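Please discuss these two lines.
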Amino acid sequence: MSIMESMGKKEPRPRRSFTPEFKAEIVELCRRGDRTVGQIAKDFDLTETAVRLWVTQAEVDAGERDGLTSSEREESAVLRREKRRLREDVDILRRTTLDSTGQGNILGWCSESQALARTVVELRRDGVKVVLAEGRQVRSFR
């Protein structure tokens, strides 16, 4: 048996989430300067990398460092999720158009919003009820 085999593999730590209040408390401890970031991380059973990231993000939020603030990061994440969902919706509608008409997809040359509008018109012409959700607003076409 080799040394590497006898050491065994460490089980990865399950991902944990922390409240903003807890993170702020840890950041404050780091800013006091009584202890090093490594000591604080060890005392609270945290990774040093996570603590350093929290401190950096707090500095960005306070305007002490360049970068995206927490609210800007959240907004960006929301917009990326919405964009992905809209692309999926357009893809589904394109496939539905192809399936319902039995013809090739002629929508490849136009923008996604144009493709969505054309698909709704074509589905309405075929008598298919179309329901589109946009934020909290739901539109139904027949």
Notes: Residues 105-109 have pLDDT under 50 and may be disordered.
